[in-house]
């Protein structure tokens, strides 16, 4: 079954990884006349464009738009009856396409892929994040797949109108949710694999990325009550309440001269990552990473709590402007 595949690679300032990404794509075990590669650049200021022009790709420049818009544009100009989305910091396996298209023959399967693999020489942050993932080895139906390793039939993509271009992040979770709701099945096969170079980051970068991602995760759950986002939302809300309680009990201790309540909430803050780290380390049989995983869970929770606080501040600002506008109208 030689389907024609449109491979879409969105990129922004990806000079460090785009070459390796494109090398892996052009080494796949699939007829060269049966796929096309479309690179959609978001306005890179480095050498990304120069590197991309050295390959047999269709290159487009769409500055200042979301990653959803980049992917949608690639699909719009693509000729394939299957769209394969891969991020510029990912390396695809040689049988990536072959393993994926075999599943599209099954009834109502609309999306194929798998969760990212970690690079072999990754740092402790990447390895610990990998141990947190409970879905990377699933072989079967799943609720969502990452946008950096997603193959989707044209029928499914067009039926749900592609990615939501209003979303800054979490657009892949949203797309999978809508595909499932429309009756399409989502299938994970670890053989349809990519290595995500972007997992090897510093702890500070991880914190910043999770603050950035956190806003959309909570917003999507509030908007649609999606079970797919429930765990992340509950985790974020729990940490937000605990952090507020820590500061509240600290202020109270200045008046009462007792720090029992403050110490209790600090203990709760660390207990949740501690318990989750035990579970992940035992399941993955990698106890040597226990404290690493615990640190990642802790930073993850703090980041998501910060995202909620930022949302509240932003909403208060909007409500204030609306209130001031109403007062202005009343005065007129």
Question: Can you give a write-up of this model?
Answer:
- By secondary structure, the chain is of the alpha/beta class.
- The chain has two domains: 5-201, Spore Coat Polysaccharide Biosynthesis Protein SpsA, Chain A, CATH 3.90.550; 205-331, no CATH class.
- 52% of the residues lie in helices and 14% in strands.
- The protein has helices spanning 18-25, 48-52, 67-77, 96-101, 124-132, 154-159, 171-181, 203-224, 230-256, 260-284, 290-331; strands at 5-11, 35-41, 58-61, 82-86, 90-92, 109-113, 140-141, 149-153, 185-188, 194-196.
- Strands 3-2-1-4-8-6-9-7 form an eight-stranded mixed sheet. A two-stranded antiparallel ribbon has the order 5-10.
- Helix 2 (48-52) links the parallel strand 2 (35-41) and strand 3.
- Helix 9 packs antiparallel against helix 10 (260-284) and helix 10 crosses helix 11.
- Our estimate of the beta-strand percent is 5-15%
CATH topology of the largest domain, by name, is Spore Coat Polysaccharide Biosynthesis Protein SpsA, Chain A
Approximate shape: elongated
- The CATH architecture assignment of the largest domain turns out to be Alpha-Beta Complex
Main sheet properties: 8 strands, mixed
Oligomerization category of the chains in this entry: single chain
Q: What's the structural domain tally?
A: 2
CATH class of the largest domain: Alpha Beta
Care to count the β-strands? 10
Low-confidence stretches: none
CATH superfamily of the largest domain, called what?
Answer: Spore Coat Polysaccharide Biosynthesis Protein SpsA, Chain A
By DSSP (H or I, 4+ residues per run), the number of helices equals 11
Structural class: alpha/beta
Radius of gyration over alpha carbons? Answer: 22 Å
